[in-house]
Amino acid sequence: AQSVTQPDIHITVSEGASLELRCNYSYGATPYLFWYVQSPGQGLQLLLKYFSGDTLVQGIKGFEAEFKRSQSSFNLRKPSVHWSDAAEYFCALTGANNLFFGTGTRLTVIP
Amino acid sequence: DGGITQSPKYLFRKEGQNVTLSCEQNLNHDAMYWYRQDPGQGLRLIYYSQIVNDFQKGDIAEGYSVSREKKESFPLTVTSAQKNPTAFYLCASSASIGTQYFGPGTRLLVL
Question: Does A36 contact B98 at a Cβ distance shorter than 8 Å?
Answer without folding.
Answer: no
